[in-house]
Recover the amino acids of this structure.
């Protein structure tokens, strides 16, 4: 599997909490049967439904629930944090989830290894905001991610970006505008505060709402898909 340049900045922080090196190695061995090789995507699932890829899933609450609800769809959860992976592994084993695979390294390696036009939905849910100015270059939502999303999404595929940090929301929209290959499906900014119809709230999100932090839900389509759709409706994306 292709590895990223070691000099490239990581978009994530620590990889484990309160786990010894030995415990992490034991977990890695237990995770092995569930880890996907993105270059072997076509032979990795027993089902062939739409594919959702989520980068940085945390404890995986949302993607696990979607996998349970939609057993004929395919899901890949990318997460480096060992504790989150451990939680997902227990859910997979307890509920015998067959349509969810894991990726335990840098999510950008997963994206780089997947074939073109293979993904129906890509999700980046509450990524690390890296709030300090000198660290913002570590934010995972950037031109590179958008270019990969454009390469990977099927026609009419969907990119979902979600954050509860105003500065990061502005950053996301600036990146989308500058990169230029995606366009928001929202007609008005008010819609950015409305979760998609199939949304599954997480513990983190519920805590954020309780503390008064309002999520921004950006649902994006490839510009060419939106232009085709709007042309059929007599509208324009300009």
């Amino acid at each position: 599997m292709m590895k990223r340049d070691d000099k490239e900045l990581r978009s994530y922080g620590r990889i484990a909490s309160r786990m010894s090196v030995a415990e992490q190695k034991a977990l890695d061995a237990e995770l092995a049967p569930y880890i996907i090789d993105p270059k072997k995507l076509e032979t990795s699932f027993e089902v062939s439904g739409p594919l959702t890829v989520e980068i940085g899933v945390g404890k995986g609450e949302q993607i696990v629930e979607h996998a349970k609800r939609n057993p004929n769809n395919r899901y890949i959860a990318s997460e480096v944090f060992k504790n989150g992976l451990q939680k997902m592994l227990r859910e997979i084993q307890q509920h015998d989830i067959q349509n969810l695979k894991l990726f335990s390294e840098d999510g950008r390696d997963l994206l780089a290894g997947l074939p073109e036009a293979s993904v129906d939905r890509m999700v980046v849910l509450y990524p690390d905001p890296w709030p300090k100015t000198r660290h913002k270059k570590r934010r995972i939502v950037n031109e590179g991610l958008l270019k990969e999303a454009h390469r990977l999404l099927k026609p009419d595929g969907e990119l979902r970006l979600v954050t509860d940090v105003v500065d990061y929301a502005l950053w996301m929209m600036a990146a989308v505008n500058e990169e230029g290959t995606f366009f928001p499906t929202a007609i008005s900014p008010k819609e950015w505060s409305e979760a998609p119809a199939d949304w599954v709230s997480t513990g983190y999100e519920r805590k954020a709402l309780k503390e008064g932090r309002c999520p921004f839900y950006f649902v994006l389509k490839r510009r060419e898909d939106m232009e085709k759709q709007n042309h059929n409706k007599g509208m324009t994306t300009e």
Notes: DSSP finds eight helices and seven strands in the chain. The helical segments are 21-31, 61-69, 82-95, 107-113, 143-152, 166-179, 203-210, 223-233.
